[in-house]
Design goal:
single chain; 520 residues; alpha+beta; 5-stranded antiparallel β-sheet; 12 helices; 19 strands
Length: 520
């Protein structure tokens, strides 16, 4: 039976007119195959191919592969160290069209050429420099080993392409840089549940807005594999896009839910979205079926912010509530996906481990990874994402608190604001626009929110952001003219929105409004 199998393999692998290899040579073929198939990486495979032939079967070997422009490029060479015999440029010039071949001509040798092909399509060339006195049996052995090498090289090329695609997708899907905000440190980590995967259905995200706020999100697409990763990327990018127009956590989740129902109707997602304002130290957030975050205060106590809605993509016409949590100096805010607490299949044990880890971990660089390692103590079978926000100190800012009903006080604040803008080298036109916007906001506060007003000026990179906080009934602003153009309501705010780079107003938790003016 064994001899019949060998004979059948020999008949299949040996081309017509060539002496088949001897059964004893199959051991050599097997050894060569193990060597070239040892690693999937292309660079290691081409190195293994030339090493298989030199010095055991040839004085020199050269592997050339077709590049993206369908041109042959030398990928690896090898030669015997003692005689440095090799392939001459004349011998390979007609195929490679190169004049810098790595070997000199060697008398008494000939070049054996083996096309590298798969499924009838050439993808490269193997050249061997062998002695002239070769035997038909030796040629058959070389040709059989070369066929195995072609298979290994093609597998490595495919692996390389798939890896490049996966790395490109990973770079697009995972956030490489965390926001740089004075007084805050953002740290994150991600680990795919499958050891052979680079990215899955979990994500974390943190990015700054022009007015100094930071949007954080974390979520989990139910399912695994590439399709879950594609869904994840679409949901995350939907949240990012909406945040640039309306940084309301509920609106971001509504938009993500619409994306799921229209494009991925068979998927559902848990997600947490927060908008952190470093000036007020308040994080507004909405939760769609996701594990609630943990907040460690400076005294070491833990809090779990409340608020929960159904997951996205279920087709429910739900109202998504927005909640607020204060992140004081010295606190640690930890967001995570359920792979962190459910890997042991005992959710209570996982949550207890997480609470212990958050309570004991030191804030700073690598805090997300340390929490992950303390909870899991090994590899999780599910994807895991962790995002941690450490509050170190309040960012530097110029602050005023005054009652705009006193004209002399308001004028003094205006003059001090002007001095700050001049120090920031704001141009005259921008200075005029900023003063007009300041006057409109004070007039609005006098009319609707009598009492103390707080004004804060923050330098954020090359931008200046002016915050005005009142204690009135609170309102939100949409940058469009009122339907009645002669109305006294809304025109001043619309004017502000046209004068500055960005303008937004939102209700403050507990009452009042918070206006933000972006000056560039």
């Amino acid at each position: 039976m064994g001899q019949r199998v060998v004979d059948a393999l020999t008949a299949q692998l040996s081309p017509h007119g060539v002496t088949p290899i001897e059964p004893s040579d199959w051991r050599l073929v097997d050894e060569a195959s193990r060597t070239v198939f040892d690693a999937p990486e292309l660079a290691r495979t081409v190195r293994s191919v030339v090493d298989v032939f030199v010095p055991a079967y040839a004085h020199a070997a050269l592997v050339a592969l077709l590049d993206d422009r369908d041109e042959l490029r030398i990928a690896a060479t090898a030669h015997r160290a003692r005689d440095r015999a090799g392939v001459s440029s004349a011998a390979v010039g007609r195929r490679l069209e190169r004049h810098d071949a790595p070997f000199a001509a060697a008398p008494g040798h000939r070049v054996e050429e083996f096309p590298l092909e798969r499924d009838g399509k050439d993808f490269g060339l193997l050249l061997l420099l062998v002695p002239d006195e070769g035997t038909p049996r030796g040629e058959a052995l070389l040709r059989t080993i070369a066929a195995r090498c072609a298979l290994a090289l093609d597998n490595a090329r495919r692996f390389e392409r798939e890896r490049n695609v996966a790395l490109t997708f990973e770079n697009a899907a995972l956030v490489s840089e965390m926001p740089a905000i004075a007084g805050y440190r953002f740290d994150a980590m991600y680990r795919a549940g499958r050891l052979d995967a680079l990215v899955g259905g979990d994500w974390y995200d943190a990015f700054p807005l022009g007015d100094g706020r930071v949007v954080v999100s974390i979520g989990d697409v139910v399912g695994s594999g590439l399709s879950a990763a594609v869904t994840m990327l679409n949901v995350r990018q939907t949240i990012r896009g909406v945040a640039q127009v309306n940084p309301d956590p509920a609106m971001m989740l509504y938009a993500a839910d619409g994306t799921l129902r229209s494009q991925f109707p068979d998927r559902f997602v848990t997600a947490f979205v927060g908008v952190l304002d470093p000036v007020t130290q308040i994080c507004s957030y909405a939760n769609a079926g996701h594990p609630p975050p943990l907040l460690r205060l400076a005294d070491g106590s833990l809090q779990q912010p409340a608020g929960h809605n159904a997951p996205l993509g279920l087709g429910l016409q739900q109202h998504i509530d927005v909640h607020h949590v204060t992140l004081p100096v010295g606190s640690l805010f930890v967001l995570y996906t359920d792979g962190l607490t459910e890997s042991t299949k005992d959710v209570f044990e996982g949550e207890a481990r997480l609470e212990a880890a958050v309570r004991d971990v030191e804030s700073g660089a690598g805090v997300a990874r340390r929490i992950h390692d303390a909870v899991l103590r090994g590899h999780s079978r599910d994807d895991v994402a962790v995002l941690a926000v450490s509050v170190q100190h309040t960012p530097p800012a110029r602050r005023w608190r005054f009652d705009p009903r006193w004209p002399d006080v308001a004028r003094r604040v205006r003059d001090q604001l002007r001095a700050e803008l001049e120090d920031a080298q704001i141009c005259a036109t921008r200075m005029h626009d900023a003063e007009l916007a300041f006057a409109e906001l004070l007039g609005n506060a006098l009319r609707y929110a009598p009492g103390t007003v707080e004004m804060i000026l923050v330098r954020q990179d090359a931008n200046l952001v002016l915050h005005v906080l009142d204690k009135g009934p609170g309102f939100q602003f949409s940058p469009r003219l009122p339907s009645d153009l002669y109305s006294e309501f809304g025109r001043g705010l619309f004017l502000i929105s046209q004068l500055v780079s960005d303008f937004s107003v939102e209700r403050r938790p507990g009452g009042g409004s918070h206006a933000r003016i972006l000056l560039t």
